[in-house]
Amino acid sequence: WYYFCWLSGDQITEQAIHHNDVINMVMGGPPISAYGSGGRMVRTDPKFGNIWDNMSIDFEYPGGVHLAHTNRHWENCDNRSENFVVGTIGESNGSGRITGKNPWIWEGEMVTPKEYEHWELVESIRNGQPRNDVLDFAADSTLTTIMGRESCYTGKVITWDEISNSDLDLLPKRLEFGPAPQRPVPIPGQPRLV
């Protein structure tokens, strides 16, 4: 499933979405555009389906703020999976430490976001106020990754309005048991948005 975009969304949607979640939260919403590139440098055999093995995307947020997003899946290479937020007077990688003009270190118990999320959900249910306030946020994060992927695949700047109004549908025409439909590897310069 991983190697087929219609199932995984490519590596940016399948894995890197969690980092886009955090940055969208820091920025207070999704980006306004994406300018991306990438390709297949290592996983070039047809057995690797139609996803890419590397992407680099400049996400622009309101106010002229830019996020440099990079991801790659290459065996036997150094890999990194983290966020870095750099401002004019400080920076953080989200690990409980801010460096710069106003340094700060979290001194409380280290709790993973997933643990905190579950505690909040359980408490809301126990208090008779169950909620699911992440639906819009999750949809925006997913659409952020799709916007970045489609910018890479097409070689074009994709705006939030364009991706929000797109009719792009990656689902095969017929879902049935048997050989998976073979789709070409995306080549920049060929349109995909409908």
Describe the structure.
InterPro entries: Gfo/Idh/MocA_oxidrdct_glycsds. This is Gfo/Idh/MocA-like oxidoreductase bacterial type C-terminal domain-containing protein. By secondary structure, this protein is α+β, with helices and mostly antiparallel strands. The chain contains six helices and eight strands, in the order H-H-H-E-E-E-E-E-E-E-H-H-E-H. It has helices spanning 5-8, 10-14, 17-27, 113-126, 135-154, 160-164, and strands spanning 33-39, 54-61, 65-72, 85-86, 90-92, 97-100, 104-105, 158-159. The chain has a four-stranded antiparallel β-sheet with strand order 3-2-1-8. Strands 4-5-6-7 form a four-stranded antiparallel β-sheet, with no helix packed on it. Strand 6 and strand 7 (104-105) form a beta hairpin. The mean pLDDT is 89.
Descriptive key words:
Dihydrodipicolinate Reductase, domain 2; Gfo/Idh/MocA_oxidrdct_glycsds; 194 residues; 19% strand; four-stranded antiparallel sheet; alpha+beta
Q: Detail the poorly predicted runs.
A: none
Major sheet size, sense and barrel closure: 4 strands, antiparallel
N- and C-termini, Cα separation: 24 Å
Q: Into which percentage range does the β-strand content fall?
A: 15-25%
For the residues shown, what is the average pLDDT?
89
Shape: globular
InterPro entries: Gfo/Idh/MocA_oxidrdct_glycsds (IPR050463)
Protein name: Gfo/Idh/MocA-like oxidoreductase bacterial type C-terminal domain-containing protein
